[in-house]
Amino acid sequence: MSAHCGDSQCSTKLDSPAYRKVLWVCLVTNAVMFVMQIVASHLAHSVALLANSLDFLSDAANYGISLFVLSMHITTR
Q1: CA-CA distance, 56 to 29, in Å (whole number)?
Q2: Which has the closest alpha carbon to 61: 36, 31, 25?
Q3: pLDDT tens, 54-70?
Q4: What pTM was estimated for this model as a whole?
Q5: Which positions ≥6 away from 26 have C-beta within 8 Å?
Q6: CB-based contact 53:38 (threshold 8 Å)
Q7: Distance of alpha carbon 53 from alpha carbon 59, whole angstroms
Q8: Are 2 and 42 in contact (CB under 8 A)?
Q9: Which of 19, 49, 58, 61 is most buried, taking the most CB atoms under 10 A from its CB?
């Protein structure tokens, strides 16, 4: 992708506000599900729910990193 993007005015579909909005929705959804499953796992004394909550945490972290990278200048990416 960056091979065709040599100058600083290059923009991609990944820079669109709609794409960022989808990433934010996914980030918030995964973070909420993480918190809900942490609570549920403690109430139910379930290790399986605890493990699944960590999966939601890792997904939320992935979306957070993606948003961070998209905020960087194209040459830094």
Answers
A1: 9
A2: 31
A3: 999 999 999 999 999 98
A4: 0.75
A5: 59, 63
A6: yes
A7: 10
A8: no
A9: 49
